[in-house]
Amino acid sequence: MYDFDQIIPRYGTNSLNYDFIKERTGREDLLPLWVADMDFSLPSEVLEPLKERVAHGIFGYSDPKESYYKALSGWYERHHHWTIERRWNTVVPGVVYGIAQAILALTKPGDAILIQQPVYYPFSEVILDNGRCLVNSELVFNGTGYEIDFEDLERKILEEDVKMFLLCNPHNPVGRVWTLEELRRIDEITRRHQVLVFSDEIHGDFTFPGYEYTPYATVSEEAAQNAVIGTSPSKTFNIAGLQVSNIVIPNPALRKQYRHAVAASGYSQGNTMGLLAGELVYARGDDWYKELLSYLDGNLSFIREYLKEHLPKLQLIEPEGTYLIWINFEGLGLTKEQLDQLIVDRAHLFLDAGSIFGAASAQFYRFNIACPRSILEQAFDQLKEAMDSL
Ligand SMILES: Cc1ncc(COP(=O)(O)O)c(C=O)c1O
Questions:
Q1: pLDDT (tens digit, 9 = 90+) per residue, 207-235?
Q2: Pocket-testing residue among 198, 235, 236, 356, ligand 1, by greatest number of atoms within 8 A of Cβ
Q3: Atom of ligand 1 nearest to the CA of 36
Q4: Mutate to test the pocket of ligand 1, among 17, 92, 96 (most ligand atoms within 8 A of CB)
């Protein structure tokens, strides 16, 4: 029903992914697969009502109404078996902003906050920028994928007196969709040591066949009461620029403290177009979303086959979820500088280098595959050509 192969030019739209490479690198010859947004347009069933709203011409203050909460809860019930009560939710402009407010509201200056690198790099920035201490329990690369070292996790929590655990569920960039069993163990350990969990579930809608995302709040009632959950339709429907995210806190005491921090930051009403888009996508986006997942699975198969056939020295870390692909370049035997040169100067690609997600990942690069397949073909052809010329 939907044409995900269509190339929609994004240059000249103030797109961070496309239009800001020149500002960052001074170059205009790089194909961008870095920022985690998609090259796909909203379906007409969502776009048309948004256009009508734009045509109205008045963009005064807004607030979410019952229909917004119904759409949000309906989406999570249909797709993830989670009922979100209206009172649990606080709308904020972004999940990272939501994390920052949780840090300010629910920890003290100097408190230790734990992350699992390699992980989405704003996690460490937002912890350090708010004067908290960063503790890393590195995910273990077992040669094909990533696992949690639960002993290390618990030891670090005890030794560093950790107060908050910033979980990425599913995990960007390694693509793990944490299992119920893993989340149960996290819940046991964190509650045993009075560690609050912030579960960033922005990628929860993206799972590949055979994997199921478990909202942290569905692990158990106790887990739900010990957690702040960050969600947003922004990744799933490519509306990050409309600035609407949902921070779900079932525990009333935590929620009260959280809302106080949001109010103290000076934020109140949400983005008028974002709230409307957030409601529309959750109410009308099911068909588009299903086709999107299937298209992304096709993109993943394309990469898998391409690497097997043309670039056997590169290792695809099979993702269980997200649309971000983590590729290991270790097999080339190059230094980090040589790798960067290969990617940028020879392959003319703009990617997120593994090192920004954690020091141990210097031989990895992250590729965003939420684009028309022909763009991926071009990107991997450029990479092949660059590697052939080594
Ligand atoms: C794990 C994770 N959290 C949060 C974000 C960004 O969220 P926001 O733009 O709502 O702050 C991203 C974007 O890539 C992400 O990967």
A1: 999 999 999 999 999 999 999 999 999 99
A2: 235
A3: 14
A4: 96
Does residue 307 contact residue 381 with C-beta atoms inside 8 Å?
Answer: no
Which residue owns the Cα nearest ligand 1 atom 10?
94
CB 117 within 8 A of CB 326: no
Q: Write phi, then psi, for 27 (nearest 5 degrees).
A: -115, 155
- Report pLDDT digits (tens) over 277-307: 999 999 999 999 999 999 999 999 999 999 9
309 Cα to the center of ligand 1, angstroms: 33
Return the residue whose CA atom lies nearest to atom 9 of ligand 1.
94
CA 126 to CA 124: how far, in whole Å?
6
Q: Which residue has the tokens 């595959």?
A: 369
Distance between the two ends of the chain, CA-based, in angstroms? 43
389 Cα to the center of ligand 1, angstroms: 36
Q: What is the pTM of this model?
A: 0.98
- Catalogue all structural domains in the chain, each as residue range(s) with its CATH number: 16-43+287-388 (3.90.1150.10), 56-285 (3.40.640.10)
CA of 196 from ligand 1 middle (Å) equals 20
Q: Measuring from each residue's beta carbon to the nearest atom of ligand 1, which residues come in under 6 Å? A: 36, 94-97, 120, 168, 172, 200, 202, 232, 234, 240, 245
Q: What is the best residue among 129, 202, 235, 325 to mutate for testing ligand 1's pocket, by most ligand atoms within 8 Å of CB?
A: 202
